[in-house]
Amino acid sequence: MDKSFDLKGKRIFIAGHRGMVGSALVRRLAGEDCEIVTVARRELDLLDQAGVRRWMEARRPDAVIMAAAKVGGILANDSFPVDFLYENLVVQTNVVEAAFRSGVQKLLFLGSSCIYPKLAPQPIPEDALLTGPLEPTNEWYAVAKIAGLKLCQAYRRQHGVDYISAMPTNLYGPGDNFDLDSSHVVPALMRKAHMAKLTGQKTLQVWGSGRPMREFLHVDDAADAFIWLLKTYSGDGHVNVGSGEDITIAELAGTVVSVVGAGAEIAFDLTKPDGMPRKLMDVSRLFKTGWRPAYSLRDGLEQTYAWFLDHVEKGDIRLGAA
Ligand code: GDP
Fold first, then answer.
1. Does ligand 1 have an atom closer than 6 angstroms to the CB of 185?
2. Relative to the CA of 189, which ligand 1 atom is closest?
3. Is-catalytic flag, 155?
4. Which ligand 1 atom lies nearest to the CA of residue 114?
5. Does the beta carbon of 72 lie inside 6 Å of ligand 1?
6. How far away, in angstroms, is 187 Cα from ligand 1 center?
7. What is the pTM of this model?
């Protein structure tokens, strides 16, 4: 059976096109001979099941990429468990079910590396899923994403549709959330380093011990991998998407300070959580297909900092107290 999905002339619905991942997918698909379908939040609330069914029935996309999600960093996830569990469960279920009802044959569901057990073997292979307890600081989001991945498998098995899942590692890049209370580590450190540079502040506060290790992937590389999978992958199992390399949070902080040109000393705030000790993905399934990321971490951070500066200048990102 030919597993390839030709995008030519297809109508591709990107759910969540305003988010960091969704907007990267819009940029990436602009180079393909396909029609990109999106919908504004004020026109369609993805929490509204009947509304999503009606909209999908009217627009009838050929394929769906599920990039809409309630996302946040370690503190937000831990502080708003209902938002992360309920919203993600409902939105993803609505989109996947409505897609099936309206005859969508190809769907790509996006999850996250936090679906894996806290103490999974490193690098984490796809089959480590559901082999142990989750990291408590992100289990709400993780449980929702595991349910989404399983829902796609269920549709595949019961109805024979080509619904696939990809699990990206920690992503960063243009369009990220730079709000310190809810952001992930890269935008948080970039903003803090930038403020330190502006104010001449001598120390930069890094949450936790600095010892946890994380793998990072630029969102444009992630979008490229997702489109590659949409075109070429058809299988029951989900696919890890990452760079294959990780660094400590302390090392990341040093690199961000250097990219920003801040010259501040790094201090560790041990009152904040570390979260998962390590979550390096085993990306051999993806890399065996020949796909590789284009950005090094340093280049990706420089590109992201340039975007940040541009959006601070435009007033899209407001800098209050650091
Ligand atoms: P996680 O990968 O789900 O844990 O998400 P985060 O990106 O929020 O955090 C990654 C790691 O960076 C954790 O060990 C955090 O404690 C650490 N970290 C250090 N400084 C910060 C910060 O200012 N904001 C965030 N969100 N994390 C930070």
1. yes
2. 23
3. no
4. 3
5. no
6. 10
7. 0.96
| Annotated catalytic residue within 86, 116, 141, 233 | 141
Q: Percentage of residues in the chain with pLDDT exceeding 90?
A: 92
- Ligand 1 center to 177 CA (angstroms): 13
- Which tens digit of pLDDT belongs to each residue from 149-172? 999 999 999 999 999 999 999 999
* H runs (alpha helix) in 60-206: 74-79, 81-82, 88-101, 139-159, 185-199
User: Parallel, antiparallel, or unpaired for β 239-241 and 162-168?
Assistant: parallel
Q: Evaluate if residue 26 carries a pLDDT over 60.
A: yes
Residue 135 zone, left/alpha/beta (φ > 0; ψ -120 to 50; rest):
beta
Q: Which residue reads 């498998």 in tokens?
A: 153
User: Strand locations in the chain, DSSP E?
Assistant: 11-15, 35-37, 63-66, 106-110, 162-168, 170-172, 203-207, 213-218, 239-241, 246-248, 265-269
pLDDT in tens, 101-147: 999 999 999 999 999 999 999 999 999 999 999 999 899 999 999 99
C-beta of residue 192 within 8 angstroms of C-beta of residue 322: yes
DSSP 12: E
